[in-house]
């Protein structure tokens, strides 16, 4: 359904169409959730690009194809928050020179970009595909400063507000067709699950920015900042999963020290990144984080976010552009 959008006249600037081969080193070794923070300041942050890696299954879980890295975006700006809507198309957040941010669709087959939004007065962040497949959801920073979740039809129709009474919200992750949200506080962010207008279930009171539906499970994974341990590599938080049916929380062990974002490889294995290194851990086993790849791309620093394609043959990394 989304394929035809890439031929729209709303095409992204050609300055992005610069894929090239880079190096990857293999070491020897409608329920939705939102959370978090200061979206208005993203335009002032450092520059980020999207880097594509080819991947394939392995006995350990995932293997990066050496030498497969290439740029998806290439500019001195904010290109971030990637989300696969199918195996050939990706949506992400991109900031304009005027400071506003839009949702962009990228097609891996045609290597074309399409503006899903083009708004100068407001900004959109954290795009994702809804369970019904007819909307791209995004957090909109409105003209009056409110941060709420909106739905953008894939046919470019008028956007719709999902929750009018829950604000400010930030990042989110779909798990079915209903949404759970984290409300931004002055110091910490409270994660809640809206069973109904009068039944807003608190889940956690100090959560991170990453919330991901657990594959083949009804639970939703999140990072609890209230349970943290300092290490030589950085702070290790606690990965947890919330079951909306039983309203219970499962402790899934420590996060990778010095890392904030995770993605599920399957229902039991999690991938996180620190610096230029990629790690995985089995949440059902008492084992340490295992490094499975070192990503070295000239002109880029650390990995901050990731997205894995449905067939697990493409891994998108958000990497810092070095000055």
Report on the structure:
The chain is an all-beta fold and 323 residues long. The chain has one domain (34-321): Neuraminidase. It contains no helices and 27 strands. The protein has strands at 23-25, 32-35, 48-56, 63-64, 70-71, 79-86, 89-95, 101-107, 112-115, 123-129, 135-141, 147-153, 160-161, 171-174, 181-184, 189-196, 199-204, 207-213, 220-231, 234-243, 248-254, 262-264, 269-274, 277-282, 290-296, 300-308, 314-321. It has a five-stranded antiparallel sheet, with no helix packed on it. Strands 3, 4, 5, 26 and 27 form a five-stranded antiparallel sheet that branches. A hairpin with a 4-residue loop joins β8 and β9 (112-115). The relative contact order is 0.18. Residues 1-44 have low confidence and may be disordered.
The CATH first-level class comes to Mainly Beta
Q: What is the name of the CATH topology?
A: Neuraminidase
Q: What is the mean predicted local confidence, pLDDT? A: 84
Number of strands: 27
- Count of helical regions: 0
Q: Indicate the radius of gyration in whole angstroms.
A: 19 Å
Short descriptors:
single chain; 323 residues; mainly beta; Neuraminidase; 5-stranded antiparallel sheet; 27 strands
SSE arrangement:
Elements: E1 23-25, E2 32-35, E3 48-56, E4 63-64, E5 70-71, E6 79-86, E7 89-95, E8 101-107, E9 112-115, E10 123-129, E11 135-141, E12 147-153, E13 160-161, E14 171-174, E15 181-184, E16 189-196, E17 199-204, E18 207-213, E19 220-231, E20 234-243, E21 248-254, E22 262-264, E23 269-274, E24 277-282, E25 290-296, E26 300-308, E27 314-321
Antiparallel strand pairs: 1-25, 2-14, 3-4, 3-5, 3-27, 6-7, 7-8, 8-9, 10-11, 11-12, 12-13, 15-16, 16-17, 18-19, 19-20, 20-21, 22-23, 23-24, 24-25, 26-27
